[in-house]
């Protein structure tokens, strides 16, 4: 075995490209969560880097590629012993160390994919423990089954060119189990992505890295690598197109998020067979993969009822399963003479082997992932508390905020939203970063500037009152539910800033606690005539109160008159909507 410098240069570049994919994934995922969770979500990807690198160097690489056992590797490469510059059997024309680094990039991104299913609600310590245990007990054995010398799936004859089974099926199935185990997000139906351009940038970087991911799996700069480069491009484009068409036909509007989701689905679908199929087969694989993943994300998730927050199962799991089946159908020795083709070459045995490998990886990943999560839950909480989730994991778990202001995405609802939601119970007081619990009068301040006059006789209107509520963005959903419960429905909101030192609120910069002198707020304005003023005030205070200074402020003012422009109605009639419901409006 002799090192080829052209192959080495090619694989060095491919390795760097694949390593870029995990930061790219952090952007892809980060844009799809709410602004208050973007840091925690991106941290999950970067945390996977630091945990898996250490695990891989110490033990993971050896368990994956050491020895020739059928189930798991040995300790011959532990601590990178016997891993030097000289080539290994796995890649005879490049340094063994380079092959190890290329495989490390795969091992890093796989648990990072899973993090998308539990975004916005999983505790950070529990996630770190999960990544370590999952990499050791799930990824490493499966990698050895499929790619390692003597691995039983490899010996059976199943093919996995770049990790369709090892990465996408294992991560997708584990993501589904994790999503079900951790449970649904609070108010998940009102969650909207906060930064789609950020997601699209991440998708573009993922696409770039995927060329190294798939083409680099040839382990040499040859015709197989070039074919993988082409099929990867074709499949991603075909899936992006088919996903867009599904949106256009069924939802009447193609979306930017749908486009990039389709591309990712196509890339996952072709990963298993990129070096084995023709470009035309890749077109079919991607087109079907885009449709399957679209319905998994939009229909299957809804019907089963799980909360896979960022659709790790829908895109990667479903795409990976289809990718394995399609490899058994379309793989051909015409493209890759080193293999026995699939159904297109008259060989049904490959399709059977692929199905067996998919089933084995699915069952093993699901069972072991559940056991890992269960064991972790016995030692530490896996899910963030309701209060932490409301405040956002960025602030509640990490003491940081991503932006100087909050995005309105996910806050605004229709101006005539008349959904009847039961009133929320009072929130129990809690301490925040060591702050003392204070009384409700001090935490939620009320300033009443209204008079006791009965109304405007000139306009023959009943007394109307404006209640202006200034709150932290994280409390908006709780306030909305509470006001809905007393017949006040339909609102839009406006983002504002609270200036001056914010008592009771701290943030952290490089571990140093600092005062927060500028905090994003939400202002809601309510004009009432039938609902008693005191009921509105008490309902709002109970919804906002946590025992901390700065829970909110309530201002009360007289209103001379209200006119509905569309009908000309005045006073209480202008406020009325859907029976006795009051109209809420937001100030600008």
TrEMBL record:
Protein's GO biological process: regulation of nitrogen utilization
Recorded topology in the membrane: Multi-pass membrane protein
Domain Ammonium transporter AmtB-like: 10-403
Organism superkingdom: Bacteria
Transmembrane spans: 12-33, 45-63, 98-119, 126-147, 159-183, 195-213, 225-244, 256-274, 280-297, 309-331, 351-373
SUPFAM superfamilies: Ammonium transporter, GlnB-like
Keywords: Ammonia transport, Cell membrane, Membrane, Transmembrane, Transmembrane helix, Transport
UniProt GO cellular component terms: plasma membrane
Subcellular localization, as worded in the UniProt entry: Cell membrane
First and last residue of the signal peptide: none
One Gene Ontology molecular-function label: ammonium channel activity
A Pfam cross-reference name: Ammonium_transp
Similarity annotation: Belongs to the P(II) protein family. Belongs to the ammonia transporter channel (TC 1.A.11.2) family.
NCBIfam families xrefs: amt
Protein name in UniProt: Ammonium transporter
Organism (species): Trichococcus pasteurii
């Amino acid at each position: 075995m002799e090192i080829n410098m052209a192959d080495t240069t090619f694989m060095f570049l491919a390795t760097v490209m694949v390593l870029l994919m995990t930061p790219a994934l952090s952007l892809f995922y980060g844009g799809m969560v709410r602004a208050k969770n973007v840091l925690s979500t991106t941290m999950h990807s970067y945390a996977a880097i630091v945990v898996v690198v250490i695990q891989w160097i110490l033990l993971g690489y050896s368990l994956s590629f050491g020895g020739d056992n059928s189930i798991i590797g040995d300790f011959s490469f532990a601590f990178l012993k016997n891993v030097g510059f000289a080539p290994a059997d796995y890649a005879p024309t490049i340094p063994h160390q380079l092959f190890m680094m290329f495989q490390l990039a795969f091992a890093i991104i796989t648990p990072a994919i899973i993090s998308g299913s539990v975004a916005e609600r999983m505790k950070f310590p529990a996630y770190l423990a999960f990544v370590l245990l999952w990499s050791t007990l799930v990824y490493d054995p499966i990698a050895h089954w499929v790619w390692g010398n003597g691995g039983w799936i490899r010996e059976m004859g199943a093919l996995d060119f770049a990790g369709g089974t090892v990465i996408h099926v294992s991560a997708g199935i584990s993501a589904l189990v994790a999503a079900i185990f951790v449970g649904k997000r609070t108010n998940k139906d009102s969650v909207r992505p906060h930064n789609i351009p950020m997601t699209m940038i991440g998708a573009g970087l993922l696409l770039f890295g995927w060329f190294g991911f798939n083409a680099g799996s040839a382990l040499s700069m040859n015709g197989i690598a070039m074919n993988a480069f082409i099929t990867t491009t074709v499949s991603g484009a075909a899936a992006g197109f088919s996903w867009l068409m599904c949106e256009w036909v069924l939802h009447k509007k193609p979306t930017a998020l749908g486009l990039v989701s389709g591309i990712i689905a196509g890339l996952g679908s072709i990963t298993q067979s990129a070096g084995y199929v023709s470009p035309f087969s890749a077109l079919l694989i991607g087109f079907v993969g885009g449709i399957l993943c679209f319905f998994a994300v939009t229909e299957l998730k809804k019907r089963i009822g799980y909360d896979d927050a960022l659709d790790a199962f829908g895109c990667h799991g479903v795409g990976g399963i289809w990718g394995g089946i399609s490899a058994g159908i379309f793989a051909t020795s015409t493209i890759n003479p080193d293999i026995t083709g699939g159904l297109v070459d008259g060989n049904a045995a490959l399709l059977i082997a692929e199905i067996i490998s998919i089933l084995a990886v699915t069952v093993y990943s699901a069972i072991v992932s559940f056991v890992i999560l269960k064991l972790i839950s016995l030692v530490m909480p896996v899910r963030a508390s309701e209060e932490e989730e409301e405040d956002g994991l960025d602030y509640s778990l990490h003491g940081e905020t991503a932006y100087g202001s909050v995005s309105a995405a996910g806050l605004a609802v229709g101006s005539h939203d008349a959904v009847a939601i039961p009133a929320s119970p009072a929130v129990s007081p809690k301490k925040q970063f060591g702050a003392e619990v204070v009384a409700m009068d001090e935490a939620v301040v009320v300033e009443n500037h209204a008079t006791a006059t009965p109304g405007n006789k000139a306009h023959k209107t009943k007394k109307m009152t404006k209640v202006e509520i200034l709150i932290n963005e994280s409390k908006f959903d709780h306030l909305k539910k509470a006001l809905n419960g007393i017949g006040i429905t339909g609102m839009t909101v406006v983002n504002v800033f609270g200036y001056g030192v914010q008592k009771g609120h701290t943030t952290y910069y490089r571990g140093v606690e600092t005062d927060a002198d500028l905090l994003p707020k939400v202002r809601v304005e309510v004009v009432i005539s039938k609902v008693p003023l005191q009921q509105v005030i008490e309902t709002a205070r109970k919804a906002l109160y946590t025992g901390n200074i700065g829970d909110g402020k309530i201002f009360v003012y007289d209103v001379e008159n209200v006119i509905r422009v569309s009908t000309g109605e005045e006073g209480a009639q202008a406020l009325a909507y859907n029976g006795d419901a009051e109209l809420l409006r937001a100030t600008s």
